[in-house]
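Severity: low
Component: inverse-folding endpoint
Summary: output formatting inconsistent between runs
Steps to reproduce: submit the following structure tokens with default settings.
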């Protein structure tokens, strides 16, 4: 069962390489994703079997929504702020610029995914144990130290991405390289926010984090089309940077003022 997600990724890579070898081009990427998903579903049925889903009672749904509305708000706000920009760029600026932006975002996520996909999943039990056994100030000092280390590492990577602009590169990559450092900087601050946010949950301020996320997503949704329309891709990148810098700073300030 643990192998299933990895198998899907490996099958996607296999189908992608094979279809690109057969000169399917961009359609090969689409077909590879489709084929790997079908294979994953078939294997899932083989492993888990097929059971008719049972609808939960009204009371269970009520309790679930009432207890999990903060988590739902955070998930929805995160999805909106992460997905809307590509649609707006493709619609109001250019599909070509959107492809540059998307590729730069994916490249910038290579060094940051370790924190979001590996480290952040282990933060809740670590933060909880520190908070229960050592108190709030020990937890805060631990977070500050980890944020400082992460900022140093990300600063080095940012400098490397900046230096790539002065290296001879193929012309078709120029649009990606020009915006890559700034996209990475926004992604870095998003990751730094992920290091701080679990602490708000541990000290029982999940609702506050959800409130922040909702406010930031609302501002982003209304501001993004205006920035794209009046300032082109530079406006989108500036807003991308500012929203995650602001989100990180306000959580750090809240944590500093908490007791």
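Observed output (run 2 of 3):
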């Amino acid at each position: 069962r643990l192998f299933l997600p990895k198998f899907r990724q490996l099958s996607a890579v296999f189908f992608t390489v094979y279809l690109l070898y057969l000169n399917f081009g961009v359609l090969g990427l689409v077909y590879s994703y489709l084929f790997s998903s079908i294979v994953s579903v078939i294997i899932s049925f083989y492993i888990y079997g097929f059971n008719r889903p049972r609808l939960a009672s009204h009371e269970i749904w009520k309790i679930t929504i009432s207890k999990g509305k903060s988590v739902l708000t955070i998930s929805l706000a995160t999805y909106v702020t992460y997905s809307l920009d590509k649609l707006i760029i493709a619609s109001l600026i250019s599909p070509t610029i959107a492809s540059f932006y998307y590729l730069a975002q994916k490249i910038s996520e290579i060094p940051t995914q370790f924190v979001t996909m590996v480290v952040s999943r282990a933060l809740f039990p670590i933060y909880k144990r520190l908070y229960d056994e050592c108190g709030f100030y020990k937890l805060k000092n631990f977070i500050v130290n980890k944020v400082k280390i992460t900022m140093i590492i990300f600063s080095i990577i940012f400098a490397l991405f900046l230096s790539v602009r002065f290296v001879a590169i193929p012309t078709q990559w120029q649009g990606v390289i020009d915006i890559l450092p700034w996209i990475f900087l926004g992604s870095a601050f998003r990751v730094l926010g992920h290091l701080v946010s679990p602490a708000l949950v541990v000290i029982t301020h999940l609702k506050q984090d959800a409130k922040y996320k909702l406010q930031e997503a609302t501002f982003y949704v209304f501001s993004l089309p205006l920035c794209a329309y009046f300032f082109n891709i530079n406006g989108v990148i500036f807003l991308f940077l500012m929203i995650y810098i602001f989100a990180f700073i306000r959580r750090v300030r809240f944590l500093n003022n908490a007791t």
